Amino acid sequence: MKLRDQWRTLEKRLPDDWESIRLRLRTEQASELQRAARVLAPMGVGRVGDELVLTIRRAGGGAGPDAARRLFARLDEERVWCLVEQEDVAVAEAPQDGDRASKEATVPVATSWDEALADLPGDWSDLLCALELDSTALLPRTALLCAPLNPTRDLATTGFTFRSARRKGYGVSPAMARRCFERLDAEGIPARVSVLRLLAETENVATQGAVWYVDGKQL
After folding, report:
1. Domain boundaries, the chain
2. pLDDT of 63-113, one tens digit each?
3. How many Cβ atoms sit within 10 Å of the Cβ of residue 144?
């Protein structure tokens, strides 16, 4: 059986969660072992006695399944007949109970926003809110996706503050805010929304909206 076909048969028998497989390969003619090693060199092949040892990684790259098929086919074309045997298979680690529980407990950002609004009095008019992230690496992308919020970096936390106005005034509308949060959910960016301060039944007099002063700063 050709080497490429041998690999195809082995690949079909691998478990669904396989990550890598270690193979032992030998040539029918001992004199051709060095030739096979040169062809398979891009996969980081090693030699143990009269056999070659190589590892195919599911993640791909120079030692991935596609590379293996290509190089095995090359040996077949050059009529370097080989026999390959499976030595060891590594599978993905099962998630820990804590990791699974954490994943299940993650609330979509849009849902977090809905829950925050549900706790407010029916006559609210202006909000000062916080959007908290798990990592500073997520800040640039979040700021872009949530640009309509006009987010302000909160240096005391890993996140932003933003304003929301129910009918008029300064701040994003609740519906637009939710669309921004749906974008975060679509890209798998975890975040939490909370209401820091609120005003109710405000009327604007000679101004476009209420102004927040927090720690001497205008927000």
Report:
1. 3-91, 105-201
2. 889 999 999 999 999 999 999 999 888 887 765 655 544 444 578 999 999
3. 10
Residues paired with residue 159 on neighbouring β-strands, in sequence order: 132, 154
Residue 160 near residue 154 (C-beta atoms within 8 A): yes
150-172 pLDDT per residue, tens:
999 988 889 999 999 988 778 89
Q: Tell me the C-alpha distance between 122 and 198, whole Å.
A: 12
Sheet of strand 191-200: strand arrangement: 152-154, 159-165, 124-133, 191-200
Is 128 in contact with 198 (CB distance < 8 Å)?
A: yes
3-91 CATH fold? Alpha-Beta Plaits (3.30.70)
Longest distance between any two alpha carbons in the chain, whole Å: 94
Place of tokens 């040996």: 75
If you count them, how many residues does the chain have?
219
Locus of tokens 């916080």:
130
pTM of the model: 0.49
What's the distance, CA 18 to chain centroid? 19
